[in-house]
Amino acid sequence: MRKVVRTRIFTVVLISLILLALILLSSFPGSPLNHLTTPVSAVFKPVQSAFRTAADNVTGFWQSLTDGIKIRDENKSLLQENAQLRNQVAQLEAAGRNYEELKDALALKDQFDRYEIAGARVMTRELGTWFDVYKIDMGTADGLDVSDTLSYAVVDSQSRLIGRVLSADLTTAKILPMLHEGFSVSARVNEVNGAIMRMRGDIELKNSGLCMIDQIPASADIRIGDQLVTSGLGGLFPEGIVIGEIIEITDDNSGRRTAVVKPQTDYDNLSVVFVMKGRQP
Fold it and tell me: Is the torsion defined by CA of 165, 166, 168, 171 positive or negative?
């Protein structure tokens, strides 16, 4: 009995395979079986259509997958090219800025020809006991001999005051910006016979990027919008370095006047500074 059952199963499987082979072969155009199976093709046509549809779907899937991989590789290549282009643009922009800074430095040397102007790059901006101190890549090996009585004015490429050299080691130096409460300089209104006063850092104003003006003479004629420059008194800072613009004036009950000045240098974007070595004769 088991042998009969196995024979029947084998016969059914064999016939199914033969029919499936006939369907597959007859589904291809130009196949010799296409004409021979024409009478029964109407019966198997739905099966053939389903087979073709499945085959087309599989082919389309693999084509889509191949196209997707190709597009992904092309996108990766384009991203790499874009990154390279952005890097080149950044390098060109940096070169352009350096060129402009060098041009401005030449003008700076012409304006203050009695001083040796030395350019340096800002390395870090340090926080600590000396709040917001800048470190530059210039030190005693470059001739910066700093002491309690000797320092150097530091300006940007537009001849605007940044601060002074605070200390130096062999290869680096620290710059005390004029926003710091430990900084002060003799200033005057930038006009003929302009009033002379003191400009200093203020602990309450520095977070706003502003400085204080005090010791204003009672007879001084100052107005909002006046530009302040260094007076040259004291020997450290040469005369005529731009400090900033007066934006506020206050008179207290005792007749004491103070003012607020906004520095013109851009502290947030400092990358190169210029140290004015030497003293005015």
Answer: negative
Tens of pLDDT, residues 86-109: 666 555 555 445 545 554 555 565
- Cα–Cα distance for residue pair 34/17, rounded to 1 Å: 18
* pLDDT (tens digit per residue) in 211-240: 999 999 888 889 999 999 999 888 788 888
Q: How far apart are the first and last CA of the chain?
A: 127
* Cα gap 259→213, rounded to integer Å: 5
Q: Does any domain span residue 85?
A: no
E-strand stretches of 178-280 = 184-189, 196-200, 211-214, 227-230, 242-251, 257-263, 272-277
Residue keyed to tokens 């207290």? 252
Same domain for 264 and 131? yes
Q: What's the CA gap between 131 and 178, in Å, rounded? A: 11
- Could you tell me if 126 and 207 lie in one domain? yes
147 CB burial (10 A radius; 0-12, 13-18, 19+): exposed
Q: Do 18 and 121 belong to one domain?
A: no
* Angle formed by the axes of helices 38-111 and 2-26, nearest 10°: 60
Q: Which domain holds residue 59?
A: 2-64
The total domain count for the chain is 2
List Cα–Cα distances, 235 to 69, 195, 231, 239, 277, in angstroms. Answer: 71, 18, 10, 9, 12
The residue whose two tokens read 């001083």 is 115
Tell me the pTM: 0.59
**The two three-digit tokens of residue 135, written as one number:** 């470190």
